[in-house]
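Thread: quick sanity check before group meeting

JM: Hey all, I'm pulling together slides for Thursday and realized we never actually wrote out the predicted structure for the chain we discussed last week. Dropping the sequence here so it's in one place. If anyone has concerns about the input, flag it before I start.
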Amino acid sequence: MKKEELLCYLGFSHFLGIGPIKFSLLKKHFGSTKKAYFADRYILDKLIGQKLTAKFIDFRNEFDPVKKIRELEKKDIKIITIDDDNYPLSLKNIPDPPICIYLKGEIPHFLKMSNKSTPILFAIVGTRSPTHYGIEITKIFSYRLAKAGFIIVSGLANGVDTVAHRYCLNAKGRTVAVLGCGVDIVYPASNRYLYNEIISSGGAIISEFPPGQLVQKGLFIARNRIISALSQGVMVVEGSEDSGSLITARYAAEQGKDVFAPPSPITSKMSLAPNLLLKQGAKLVTSAEDILDEYNVKITFKNIEEIKSKLNTDEKKFFELLEKNPLRIDDISLSLKEPVSKVLNIVSIMEIKGIIDKNSDNQYQIKAA
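JM (edit): ok, ran it. Output follows.
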């Protein structure tokens, strides 16, 4: 793409008054982004109205796309326009594809793949205030799916999103965080370490909103359609009746994507979103294997049976417990009703054997699973 054309995409993307729908209309009418960007005021008046045209002309006169490009380069922010070869194919199929995608870090090859290609991008979303049950569900599914090679997609928000990203990384998987603000804004600020780890592990931080764009409530709704569009399926873990995760699920259904939900205790207000989706026809899942079966993904864990056959009785108990999800020493002790001293001894032996290791949350996990 010629640089002058790229600058025009950049200009449209930074002018929030013209979104994907209006941009598509203008581009189709004028035949190119450049012609649309520099179009005569009189023609623009007819297409998008005098008020919006006046604001756009003022913006166009003040905006310096060359200076903006330099700013983005200094921040290591990549720009992917809708006509770029690196633009995610799955986003092109929705009615309102983003004009540009901004990305922190290197562009992962998996973003360019179609939804029918492997690896599978899969969204795990839910409330910012999950219950203990919701946290455990998120840990198990994110960890197991990442181990199976799935790319976990979520929104970096507190709660379910954070747990989904974290346990994907714990499984040494890759994850995509879609933001409702600029990619240079870490929101929430408490997730800065997670934000950086996503990038360094080969994942991606992306947004359709220009860098510098601060958090606004309405932007999260637009963000949700990108989460679902990138993903082959969406699982809603927990949420109230007005949860944003229901919006993501609705987008997913409209986009022809699969929607999944685990059954939740009806006594919890956070059960309303997943249980409502189940009533509406979402696919019920009680284990990560249900999702693997849905996509016909067969996992052959490396020498898993051979490893088990060489373990003594105590080690086998540990192994089978950690197969479900990573745990800290105290949690292992409580689950198996064994003294911490004994747990530490067995864990040390299994570490030396190379069967388990410790993740960044100081939890033990199976290296072979």
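AS: nice. The two ends are 44 Å apart (CA to CA). The domain at 3-72 is CATH 1.10.150 (DNA polymerase; domain 1).
JM: adding both to the slides.
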